[in-house]
Amino acid sequence: MACDTASGCTTTPDARARGEPMQFGRSYEEFEVGATYKHWPGKTVTEYDDHLFCLLTMNHHPLHLDVNYAGETTQFGKNVVVGNYVYSLLLGMSVADVSGKAIANLEVESLRHVAPTFHGDTLYGETTVLGKTESTSKDDRGVVHVETIGYNQDGKVVCVFRRKVMVPKENYLTQRGGEQPGRPVPQPDKNWAGPQA
Question: Contact at 8 Å (CB) between 22 and 16?
């Protein structure tokens, strides 16, 4: 499946109409050093998102949860979205373009929060391929080294992280069922007669 480096995947509506699968991750061969994948769509971060993530992860810092505290005692004058949510959101945005076929996420090499994210900000992300290395122990996989940046609606970069992901080669995918392994075939019954002839 061809994808250009400026806009990400070029899967067309015609291709999907023919039953071709949407891009979800890449094989080792599909990664090109220097390529940048612009993840779509962005996500507007709500107060609810931030509070739920904080409560689920037991991060009760008042900078994230207490409007009065943030407004009266911090340099920001308002709540700041918890950094681990920003990172998790950007990581999730990158899955369809980068790690949707991954065998393993091996390492987060660096993670920097370079500017705050606030409730109501919309985050966008893009990932650049920094390098790729074939596995020395198994010939059906390799490791890609990528950098993801996240930025808000004004283009202000808020988060930068680098990671290494083990991804399959084409022969690995072929041996395990191709693009969508394990996908069942819909079975006709009284509620659905089957595909139209």
Answer: yes
pTM strictly above 0.90:
no
Q: Which amino acid is at 131?
A: G
Assigned token pair, 194? 């089957």
pLDDT digits (tens, 9 = 90+) for 92-143: 999 999 999 999 999 999 999 999 999 999 999 999 999 999 999 999 999 9
Torsions phi, psi of 110, nearest 5? -155, 150
d(CA 27, CA 33) in angstroms, rounded, equals 13
Q: Locate 188 and state its tokens.
A: 């006709």
Distance CA 157, CA 74 (A): 21
Give the separation between CA 121 and CA 184, rounded to whole angstroms. 39
**How far apart are the C-alpha atoms of 60 and 92, rounded to whole Å?**
23
* Contact assessment for residue 28 and residue 132, using Cβ atoms and an 8 Å cutoff: yes
Tens digit of pLDDT for each residue in 63-85? 999 999 999 999 999 999 999 99
Whole-angstrom distance, CA of residue 80 vs CA of residue 181? 41
